[in-house]
Design goal:
- With 132 residues, this protein is mainly alpha-helical.
- Helices cover 80% and strands 0% of the residues.
- It has eight helices and no strands.
- Helix 4 crosses helix 6.
- The protein starts with a helix and ends with a helix.
Length: 132
């Protein structure tokens, strides 16, 4: 995915498909969180961060953009069994103990955990932008 996302960015395909400047000007903690979480589960979290780095860098508050992307891409790894290598390691270890953890069984719990933690992160990030 690094090669693909890097190639798309270098060739200008990303810029053609997504107006990153307009996206950055309209980015809020909430919508950037959910875009990052969605991309993190589609293409993995590190390539998602690579694609969104120019959005964070050009936001009015770049620091807030980077913190939002960091939190969302990390927490999004809890959504599915494939969301993080750590999830796969745990599932594989459980299998050695004859405990079968299916993709959908994990996702049922992961969905709740991910939504709750993302909402807490959005709340906290919104709060720190309001406070001096």
């Amino acid at each position: 995915m690094f090669v693909v996302s890097g190639s798309l960015e270098t060739s200008g395909v990303t810029t053609t498909l997504i107006n990153l400047g307009a996206l950055a000007s309209k980015a809020t903690v909430l919508n950037l969180t959910f875009v990052t979480a969605g991309l993190s589960n589609l293409i993995s979290n590190v390539p998602a961060v690579m694609l969104l780095r120019s959005v964070a860098a050009t936001m009015p508050d770049a620091r807030l953009g980077w913190i939002t992307i960091a939190a969302a891409s990390t927490l999004a790894g809890n959504l599915t069994l494939l969301g993080s290598v750590a999830n796969l390691i745990v599932a594989e270890s459980a299998e050695r103990w004859r405990i079968k953890l299916s993709f959908w069984e994990y996702t049922r719990s992961g969905l709740i955990i991910t939504l709750v933690t993302l909402l807490i992160a959005v709340g906290w990030l919104t709060l720190i932008t309001i406070l001096p």
